[in-house]
Structure formats: C-alpha cells, structure tokens
Amino acid sequence: MPAYVVLSFILAAAGASLVYAGSRNQMLIPARNRSHKILLLAGIAALIISLVLMLQWFGPAAAVFIWLTVAMLIWSTVPFAAVWWRSKRGGQQ
C-alpha cells in the first residue's frame, strides 16, 4: 500500500477530529482555548484532501465508503472518549 493511502487515512481521522473539535458542543477542548472557525476549516480541508488521495488508489464508490466510515468512526468514538477522559480528570462535565 502506498504511503499516500496511509496519509489519506491519517488525514481523514485528523480532519474528522478537527471538525468535531470545531463544534460548539464538544467536550474535547475547553471553550476558552479554541477557535471554532479555524478548527472547522482545517478539518474540512483535511477531509477533502484525504478523499482526493483515496480516489487515487480506490475506486470512487470504495473511496467514498472508506472515507465516510473513517469519519463516522471518529465522530462516534471521540465524543464518548472525551467525556470519559474529562470525568477521569475530574474536569467540567
């Protein structure tokens, strides 16, 4: 598997995480330490680049399916992990 395919998976996971971090209702980063628009735009850019890289190796249907699966995996696990991490640290709920 070429390095750009691995990079596409990393960018998809990072982009989905940044899109989540750019949300106003997220529990990952305290509200005073983030800029919503910058995180959201960086996440969207990373997701688009990762899709373009996946399209180079996989077929169009497979690339979109893999891309959405990685994003959904991140968007399903990161919120629960963030709440669990904050509760372990005794932080704000």
Describe this structure as you would to a colleague.
- The model has no long low-confidence stretch (mean pLDDT 87).
- The protein contains 3 helices and no strands.
- The protein has 93 residues and is mainly alpha-helical.
- Helix 1 (3-21) packs antiparallel against helix 2 and helix 2 (36-57) runs antiparallel to helix 3 (60-89).
- It starts with a helix and ends with a helix.
- It has one domain (3-89).
- The chain is elongated and about 45 Å long.
- The protein has helices at 3-21, 36-57, 60-89.
- 76% of the residues lie in helices and 0% in strands.
Write the topology of this structure.
Elements: H1 3-21, H2 36-57, H3 60-89
Spatial shape: elongated
Q: What proportion strand? A: under 5%
Largest sheet: none
Order of helices and strands: HHH
Our measurement of the CA-to-CA distance between the termini, rounded to an integer number of angstroms, reads: 42 Å
The helix count comes to: 3
Q: How many individual β-strands?
A: 0
Total domains, how many? Answer: 1
